[in-house]
From TrEMBL:
Keyword Transmembrane helix: yes
Organism from which the protein derives: Phormidesmis priestleyi Ana
The keyword Ribosomal protein appears for this protein: no
GO cellular component: membrane
Protein's name in the database: Putative permease
C-alpha cells in the first residue's frame, strides 16, 4: 500500500471520492428499503440514551438494573400520558380556535395595511402596499388550506404509528438492558485507535447536545408560556409550547418567534410588537446566559455547517434526521480534528472527556 502514499493528493482523492460516493449511494438505498425499521431502532437508541441517566441514578440505591429500567419506563410513560391528558385538550381547542380566527385576522391585517397606505398617501410617501396586501392574503389563504389538508392526512399515519410506538418502547427496554454489549460489538469493528477516540467523543457530543437542548426547550417553553399569558396574547399556551418545542432544534426559537409575531401582528400591529419584544428578550436570556452553561462541552459547528447538516439530515432521515443531524455532524468534525493531533495529545483529550463528572454518568448504551 506504499504506492498510495506516493500518489499526488489530487489523484488520491480522485480515486477515493467515486468509491465513497458509491458506498454512500448503496447505504442510502439500504436505508430507504428498511426506513421504517431503522427509524424505530434509531428512536429507541436515542430514548435509551436519555433514559439511562435516571436508570443509573436508581441503580445507585442498589436496585437491580432490570427493575430500575421498568420503573423509569413506567415513570416516563406516566409523565407523558399525564401531560397528554392535561395539555392535549386545551392545545387542540386553541389550535382549532386559531384556525377559525385566522380569516378575521387576515381581514384585520389587510385593514391595517390599508390604513398605513392611506397615511402614506396623505404624506405623499412613495409607498404602495395594495399589491402586497392582495398577494399576502392569497398566499396565506393557500397555506392555511394546505395545512388543513396535511393535518387530515396525518390521521391515518397517527393511527398506524401505535404499533411502531409499542415496538419502540419494547426495543428501548432491551437496549437499556443489553445496550452496552451491543455497542461494544459495533465499536470493535473500528480500528483500536478510532475506537478509543470515537466512543467517548460521540458520547460527550450526544449527551451535551440532547440534554442541553431539552433543558433549554423546557425553560424556553415555560418562560414563553408565562410571558404570553401575562401580556394577554391570544392562544398563549399554544404559542408558548410551540416555541418550546421549536427550541429543541437549531434556529427553531427565532423561526417560531417570527411566525408567532407575524400572526399576532395580523390581529394588531402593537400586539405583534409586544410579542416580538418580550419573546426576543427571553430568547436572548436563555440562549446567551443559560444555554452556554448547559452545552459547554459541545463541539461547536459553524452556523453554515449546522444548516447544511440539518438539510442533509432532513433529506436522508426526515424528522429523525433533523433531530440527530447536529450531534452527528459535530461528532464527525471532532473525530477528524482529533485524528490530526499527535497520539499523546489525542490520548490526553480522550482522558479528559472520560474523566469529566458528566461523563461519569454517561450512558452505557451510547
Amino acid at each position: 500500500m506504499d504506492w498510495l502514499n506516493r500518489l499526488p493528493r489530487w489523484m488520491f482523492w480522485g480515486l477515493a471520492l467515486p468509491v465513497l460516493a458509491l458506498n454512500g449511494w448503496v447505504a442510502l438505498q439500504v436505508y430507504a428499503y428498511f426506513r421504517s425499521q431503522l427509524t424505530i431502532f434509531l428512536t429507541a437508541t436515542l430514548l435509551s440514551f436519555l433514559l439511562n441517566y435516571p436508570v443509573q441514578l436508581l441503580a445507585r440505591f442498589r436496585l437491580r438494573r432490570s427493575l430500575a429500567i421498568v420503573l423509569v419506563l413506567l415513570g416516563a410513560l406516566s409523565i407523558f400520558g399525564t401531560l397528554g391528558v392535561l395539555l392535549a385538550p386545551p392545545l387542540v381547542e386553541q389550535l382549532n380556535e386559531l384556525i377559525g380566527r385566522l380569516p378575521s385576522w387576515l381581514d384585520s391585517g389587510t385593514a391595517q395595511l390599508a390604513a398605513i397606505q392611506n397615511w402614506a398617501v396623505e404624506l405623499n410617501l412613495p409607498i404602495d402596499l395594495t399589491r402586497l396586501s392582495v398577494q399576502l392574503q392569497g398566499r396565506l389563504t393557500a397555506q392555511l388550506q394546505s395545512i388543513s389538508a396535511t393535518l387530515l392526512s396525518l390521521l391515518p399515519d397517527a393511527i398506524g404509528s401505535v404499533v411502531d410506538l409499542g415496538l419502540t418502547v419494547v426495543l428501548t427496554f432491551y437496549l437499556l438492558l443489553h445496550g452496552e454489549r451491543l455497542w461494544d460489538g459495533i465499536f470493535q469493528w473500528l480500528p483500536r485507535s478510532w475506537n478509543e477516540r470515537a466512543r467517548p467523543l460521540i458520547r460527550q457530543n450526544f449527551q451535551n447536545y440532547f440534554l442541553g437542548q431539552i433543558t433549554v426547550a423546557l425553560l424556553m417553553g415555560t418562560a414563553m408560556t408565562i410571558a404570553f399569558v401575562v401580556i394577554r396574547v391570544p392562544f398563549g399556551l399554544l404559542f408558548g409550547i410551540a416555541v418550546g418545542v421549536a427550541a429543541i432544534f437549531p434556529f427553531g426559537p427565532a423561526l417560531s418567534i417570527t411566525i408567532i409575531s407575524f400572526l399576532t401582528a395580523l390581529k394588531s400591529i402593537w400586539l405583534g410588537v409586544r410579542v416580538v419584544t418580550v419573546a426576543a428578550v427571553i430568547d436572548q436570556v436563555v440562549e446567551n446566559a443559560i444555554a452556554p452553561q448547559l452545552i459547554g462541552g459541545f463541539v461547536g459547528l459553524n452556523p453554515v455547517w449546522i444548516l447544511v447538516s440539518l438539510l442533509l439530515g432532513t433529506k436522508i432521515a426526515g424528522f429523525l434526521g433533523l433531530i440527530m443531524a447536529v450531534p452527528v455532524a459535530s461528532s464527525i468534525k471532532g473525530l477528524f480534528e482529533n485524528s490530526k493531533l499527535p497520539p499523546s495529545v489525542s490520548d490526553e483529550v480522550v482522558s479528559e472527556v472520560e474523566d469529566t463528572p458528566a461523563e461519569n454518568a454517561a450512558l452505557a448504551s451510547a
